[in-house]
Amino acid sequence: MDKLLSILSHRREHNSTGELSFALKFLNHCEPLYDLNNEVIAYRFDNTHPEDRSRVLFSCHIDTMHRKEPERVFQEVFVDSLTNQVFINSSDDCLGADDGAGVYLLLEMIERDVHGCFLFHRGEEKGGIGSRAMSSIHSDWLSTFTHAIAFDRRGARSVITHQGMNRGASDKCAQFIIDLFGMNHELDDTGTYTDTREYFGLIPECFNFSIGYDHEHSSSEILDLDYLMKLKDKITSIEWGSLELPIDREPKYDDYEGFSYGSYYGSQYDSFSSIYDNPELDEIMYLDRKELARFIKKNKPEKIADMMSDLLNHVFELEDAMIARDQYYSDDYADYHSFNDNRDRPSLLKAPIQSELSLNLENDELEGSYSG
Fold first, then answer.
1. 102: closest CA among 57, 66, 61?
2. Are residues 214 and 288 in the same domain?
3. How many domains does the chain have?
4. What's the start-to-end Cα distance of the chain, in Å?
5. Residue 249 CA: distances (Å) to CA of 109, 328, 361
6. Fewest 10 Å CB contacts: which of 49, 239, 242, 358?
7. In the structure, what pLDDT confidence band is assigned to residue 340 with cuts at 50, 70 and 90?
């Protein structure tokens, strides 16, 4: 638990001091991989073995959507003892469980000597900077893998088979893993984007798995610890190297096989449209400010919290649909997802990484600050 909360206490905006502090603390046992400008694009820990029956690449990204105070390294995180959820102060910009929870899972798998290769990408929130470079520079190496599993999806149900309308994984393999996990996951063809999207043309089976966060990229972001810990126990107990995982897809970047436009756009828009069919939300739909204040005052905080959570879910589902509509993988993706961030900051992760900084990050008094 302490490791997870320490990860989440780091504000890891791409190219920030917080990201560097995190990398020095948690990824010093990994091999940095570079682009042609000698900049780190990912960190690799290779624990594959010649006898492995499936070559599995496990993936996450280390950057977050923190934007306030880019020089600030740490934030305080809290654990709700009743719900067992992690959250932050409303004044902060995001928790960073997207994808700090995925980072935590990969580190736990490494610590328990799970067979596979573990790739920690940089710059996913800036348009897949690390994975795009990886697919270009290290394509031959990536093509040696049979399966790529990203841990970067919201919620606690999804096994993503499609990203941005393109199929990345077969239903046959997805169902095999769902049955293997035994955690009531479901096939989901409504994915938008994570780093494994860049490997659709190189690796036959490319997934993204739910890891328990919700309301990402906002101060309302939360992380379901019960689900995450169950998932950790499951994936670290599996003998991945001895599994012969199904392969039922040929690598290709544009693959619309098995995709339903009605299913995709329906799933993206239905929850937003159904706001008018939600009886509880319908109660407040047409209230003016004073009536809304009276409604809040007379109802229990739990009910108000549930309604707010439903409203936020509608917002995030609509955001996903808008991204997909505008072709998530266009050249404008990075500008969209980084909120047109044109700040010219020099890279903090040029090679070689210096282990001694003028700011003694590892002894910062705020490091790992969290409350129960």
1. 61
2. no
3. 2
4. 11
5. 26, 22, 45
6. 358
7. very low
